[in-house]
Q: What sequence folds into this?
C-alpha cells in the first residue's frame, strides 16, 4: 500500500516537473506578454551589467526595507517579467546565431567535424540553460539565479564570438573553436 | 583661394549640448525627457534650432541622439533607490503638483515614449519597470533612507 502511494506521489511529482520544464521551454521560445517582436533582430546587445542588476538582491533589499507588502509583490512580478524577457532575448539571439552558422556551413567547403560538434554542443547547452532559467524564474523568481544567468550570458557571448570568427575564416579561429 | 569648410564632428556638437543645455537640467530623468522631446514623433529625427545654427542640422540631430542614448544607458543602470530619487527630483522640480504628476504618470506611462529607438529590449523593459515601481513607492509616501536624511 505504501509502495503504491509512493509510486503515485512519484508519478505526480514527475508530471509536475515535466509540466514546469515544458512551460519554461515554451516561455523561452514564444513571444509572450511583455515581449516585443524585435527581441531577435534588435541592433543593440544587452550590456553585461544588466544581469547583475536584474538577478541580484540589492534592489530587493531596498524594497524589503520599505516594509510595504504591495510594493514587494509588484517588485517580484516586475523582476520576473524583465528576467523572462532577457531569457527569451538570449534564446532568440542564440537561435539566430545558429541559423546564420548553418547557412554559412552549407556553403563552406572545408567544414571541420569537431568544430561543428563543439558549436552544436554549446548551442544545445545554452538552449537547455535558457529552458531551466525560464522554468526556475517562473517558479522562484530571478533573485537566486544570478550564477546560472551569468553562465548563460558568458556562453552566448562565446558562441557569438565563435560564429563571428568562423565567418571571418582563418585557421587560428578553428583552433579557438576547439578550445572553447 | 577657397577656404575649406571647418569640419565639425558630432562629438563637438555633443560637448556643446552637454555644456550649454544638459548641465543646466537637474537630474538624468529630466534630461532623458528633455532629449526625447527634441525628437519628431513622425520621423524620429532629433531637432534643436540653436545647435543646428551652430553646427549643421544633421550633426545636431546625431549629437542629440547620442546624448539620448548615453543618458538612457546611464539611467537604466541605476539601482532602484537611486531611480526613486531621480523620479522624486523630477516631480518635485516641476511646476505642476507633485501628486498630480505621479497620478498621471502612473496612468498614462508617458516615460515609455521617452526611450531612444533600437535600444536593447530587456534594458528598456528594466527601466520602464523600475520607473513603474518608483511611482508606486513615491505615491505610497515611501522614500529611500538617503532622501529622508537629506530632507531632515
A:
Amino acid at each position: 500500500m505504501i509502495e503504491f502511494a509512493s509510486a503515485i506521489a512519484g508519478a505526480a511529482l514527475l508530471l509536475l516537473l515535466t509540466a514546469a520544464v515544458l512551460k519554461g521551454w515554451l516561455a523561452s521560445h514564444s513571444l509572450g506578454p511583455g515581449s516585443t517582436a524585435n527581441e531577435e533582430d534588435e541592433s543593440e546587445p544587452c550590456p553585461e551589467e544588466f544581469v547583475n542588476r536584474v538577478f541580484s538582491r540589492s534592489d530587493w533589499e531596498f524594497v524589503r526595507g520599505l516594509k510595504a507588502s504591495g510594493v514587494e509583490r509588484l517588485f517580484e512580478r516586475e523582476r520576473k517579467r524583465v528576467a523572462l524577457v532577457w531569457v527569451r532575448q538570449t534564446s532568440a539571439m542564440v537561435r539566430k546565431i545558429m541559423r546564420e552558422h548553418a547557412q554559412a556551413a552549407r556553403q563552406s567547403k572545408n567544414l571541420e567535424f569537431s568544430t561543428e560538434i563543439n558549436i552544436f554542443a554549446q548551442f544545445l547547452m545554452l538552449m537547455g540553460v535558457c529552458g531551466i532559467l525560464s522554468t526556475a524564474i517562473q517558479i522562484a523568481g530571478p533573485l537566486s539565479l544570478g550564477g546560472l544567468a551569468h553562465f548563460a550570458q558568458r556562453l552566448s557571448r562565446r558562441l557569438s564570438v565563435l560564429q563571428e570568427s568562423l565567418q571571418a575564416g582563418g585557421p587560428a579561429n578553428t583552433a579557438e573553436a576547439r578550445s572553447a | 583661394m577657397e577656404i575649406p569648410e571647418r569640419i565639425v564632428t558630432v562629438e563637438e556638437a555633443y560637448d556643446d549640448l552637454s555644456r550649454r543645455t544638459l548641465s543646466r537640467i537637474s537630474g538624468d530623468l529630466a534630461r532623458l525627457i528633455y532629449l526625447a522631446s527634441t525628437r519628431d514623433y513622425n520621423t524620429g529625427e532629433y531637432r534643436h534650432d540653436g545647435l543646428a545654427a551652430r553646427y549643421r542640422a544633421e550633426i545636431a540631430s546625431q549629437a542629440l541622439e547620442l546624448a539620448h542614448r548615453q543618458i538612457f544607458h546611464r539611467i537604466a543602470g541605476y539601482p532602484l533607490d537611486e531611480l526613486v530619487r531621480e523620479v522624486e527630483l523630477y516631480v518635485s522640480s516641476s511646476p505642476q503638483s507633485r501628486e498630480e504628476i505621479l497620478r498621471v504618470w502612473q496612468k498614462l506611462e508617458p516615460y515609455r515614449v521617452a526611450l531612444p529607438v533600437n535600444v536593447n529590449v530587456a534594458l528598456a523593459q528594466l527601466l520602464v519597470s523600475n520607473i513603474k515601481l518608483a511611482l508606486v513607492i513615491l505615491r505610497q509616501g515611501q522614500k529611500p533612507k538617503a532622501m529622508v536624511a537629506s530632507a531632515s
